[in-house]
Amino acid sequence: MTNATLQAVRERLPDYVAAVTTKSKGGFYTCPLCGSGTGPNKSGAFRIRGEKFRCFSCGRGGDVLDLLGEVEGLPDFRDRARRASELFGIDGSVTAAGAAPVRRESRPEPEPSFIPDEIMRGSLSGYGQNNFAAWLVGVFGVMRAYEVANAYSVGTSRHWPGACCFWQIDEAGRVRRGKVMLYNAETGRRVKEPGNMIAGVHWLLEMPDRKPPACLFGLDLAASSSKPVAVVESEKSAIIGAGFVPGFIWTATGGKGTLSRKMLEPLQGRRVVLFPDLGAFDDWTEKAAGWPGVEVSELLEGRATAEDRAAGLDVADYLLREHGISA
Ligand SMILES: [Zn+2]
Predict the structure, then answer these.
(1) pTM score
(2) Which of 90, 107, 239, 301 is the least crowded, having the fewest Cβ atoms under 10 Å away?
(3) Distance 67 CA to ligand 1 centre (A)
(4) Residues with CB under 5 A from ligand 1 (ion)
(5) Average model confidence (pLDDT) for the chain?
(6) Assigned CATH topology for domain 216-327
(7) How far apart are the C-alpha atoms of 265 and 270, rounded to whole Å?
(8) How many CA atoms lie within 13 A of 202 on its CB side?
């Protein structure tokens, strides 16, 4: 493209804008990139000045080739130039009809940032420095502790001395999220001093903040088995459940409030039993009412004593106690 042609193309900015979007007010347009009609201070969003455009809502700006590249998803300058010649014609005669195939939804959504496999795999060692693993050995013995930790890909993190990492691996084997946590090696209880000692791997690695949606901890195991699926709140409860009650595949929501129908979607057609901790029974029962194939266990709710309630017994506590292990 010669400089003269380039100049001719740049001058077609108003024609191109008119073809891909509509006027909003006061000489402004609705932004074809972000769809906004108004910028800050209720002024218009998208304006043309000479050969340049700028959107005061999404902040993007440039010349007609930049705009066309964004609208059509063409990062390469040569592709943009070729498309511009096509649209505007050699003699620069562009019409709204010529630009009609341009679709403003054509900007692809950014890809979610899954955690690279090698990062997860790199964490699967160093168990001598992993308080949770050490505690697990005390509960199950070395062999069974290893089997269970291995099945759930429990990692070791150096973020805090003794920390572990629980990875959310989905039905396709993709690592969606990682949660670094610190436990006491003797009691198996979470360390909550000086802070709550939980950190997300996306944040720790300064990965782009496009976290994929959370999935059940243990979803990968559930997907590759036909056993009924137990759903508990904490990763620790899932792992303890797996060690003591192998008739289920044990999964965890990672929090009381995070249970959702969407999270259970990959388990459609399976028998799914929710095991709420004490205090979450009503909440989970209400939420799961009418979810096909999903039942709520009254295991804890039905047997809890007043002391259990006061202590906020969870599924892990209950199973450990049943097996004569005091936490
Ligand atoms: Zn915009």
Answers:
(1) 0.67
(2) 90
(3) 11
(4) 31, 33-34, 55, 57-58
(5) 89
(6) Dna Topoisomerase Vi A Subunit; Chain: A, domain 2 (3.40.1360)
(7) 10
(8) 14
